[in-house]
Amino acid sequence: MGKTFEFISTDLQNWIEAQKVFFVATAPLTKSGHINVSPKGLDSFRMITPTLVAYQDLTGSGVETIAHVQENKRIVIMFCAFDGPPKIVRLYGSGEIILPGDEKFVEMSGYFPNRRGVRAYILVHINRIQDSCGYGVPLYDFKSDRDVLDKWTDAKNDDEVEAYQQLKNKVSIDGLRGL
Prior knowledge:
alpha+beta; Pnp Oxidase, Chain A; 24% helix; globular
């Protein structure tokens, strides 16, 4: 049976940090809007405090998470054990978008690898932590991180990355404001 926690303990933090992938889920307020789930990796997740986490949001073809969090702040991050004992952990919370130009942006940059194409940092103020068994999650062997996104941004200058963001990240698929 799953357990709930008030904060992320050192043991749980160590387990989370050992995971190579996590998933971010958000949804708009409208019933007809699209629920979004995004896989993340590339050493882009950090524990700030036992009830505050953040991830580095990299330039991509959509902007659903940013749009949803700006609209309603609801967000959940899920980790699954793909090796070792089965386990799933969900971090429910209230999201905060930190964009370039925000006073917190430079501070947040210090927690993460220096990477071009960072369009935001997503902070999650955790209000519920829950684990579950993960018995149905398959076992996988981690080979390596992909380098495609870093190569893509490295092949562009700052103006080209910004132009791409303006083209692809201004509004969500449901018409909500993005970047």
